[in-house]
Design goal:
The protein is of the alpha/beta class. It is built from twelve helices and twelve strands. The longest helix is centred in the C-terminal third of the chain and has 22 residues.
Length: 391
Amino acid sequence: MQTIAGFDRIGEENAFAVLARAGELAAAGRDIINLGIGQPDFPTPENIVEAAVRALRDGHHGYTPATGLPALREAVAGDLDRRFGVDVSPDRVIVVPGGKITMFAAILMFGEPGAEILYPDPGFPIYRSMIEFTGATPVPVPIREGMGFAVSAEETLSLVTPRTRLLILNSPANPCGGVTPRAEIDRLVVGLADHPQVAVMSDEIYDQILYDGEEHVTLLGYPQIRDRLILLNGWSKTYAMTGWRMGYSVWPDGLYDKVRKLAVNAWSCVNAPSQYAAIEALTGPQDAVLAMVDEFDARRKLVVDGLNALPGVSCVVPKGAFYTFPNIGATGWKAKPLASALLERAGVATIGGPDFGILGEGYIRLSYAASRDDIAQALHRMDDFLRTGQP
């Protein structure tokens, strides 16, 4: 059977393959510690769960507007204003079933043969996968350990050409935990004035998971690029709602209706009870968020100290999200074989750096969205393995 060529170019997110393999091993009786998938191990806060249950009991089980409940779009706009002091119209907000939909829509909009799209490398693998699906040329923007895995404005701007249609940014970043400081973003925005043809998609899904007094700098705070800025955000990471599939995006005037039509054609609307839960998440108490970030911080210190004590491993301190991206170059292992061996032989699931881009070789990713006991045990197993295993 003949298929459309573009579908042969679609990649995938290997974290889900690792999750599946870890599940197979666990089902066979193996004791597996999963530090691979980026999923908070906390329950969704009770007030959010109750809001969804209440919505169902009140009969809110039908279709909603394709762009999301008006009350939810207003809550999103209010939350962005409260946290960042930015004025966002609810009429520019679209509620989507997970953050990937925003990537899909933005990249589909700007990607075509002959176009170039810049994306972070190492970075979330779906960026490159979707770029290649559209036939556009993916142009990796190096995210370097020497800069704390933050974006370099100078290097990013040097990669822009007349064919560049879209620039993808991500801070705090997956997989490296880097946070790009305001000074670099300031320089980047100034430089983009010379490239008015370049739209920007800013993936800010980890914007509330920060440490050491770091500041999240939203691209919404730069009026000079608002007419070409797409914001990606959602509830999955901040509120431990990964399986609820709740995301939102903010679009400029010229693109909003195109995405609305895509929603009508592709997913109709996001499920109604989850939208009511999302309203409660944004407008209700935020104590659970603060508690989760405090616990992530404690785990971060545990995992970084433990990784730096492993033979042949060094790890910079992540400033955001809940990932470490340790350098394993001195172990003698390549990244993907090491990640596979750690899972199959040591019972610890991690992700090989090349799954996040061509510049990921020499690194593996660990998620510390797991309990302290699991992290400590995983580090112990990794230490035993690296001291006794053979590359």
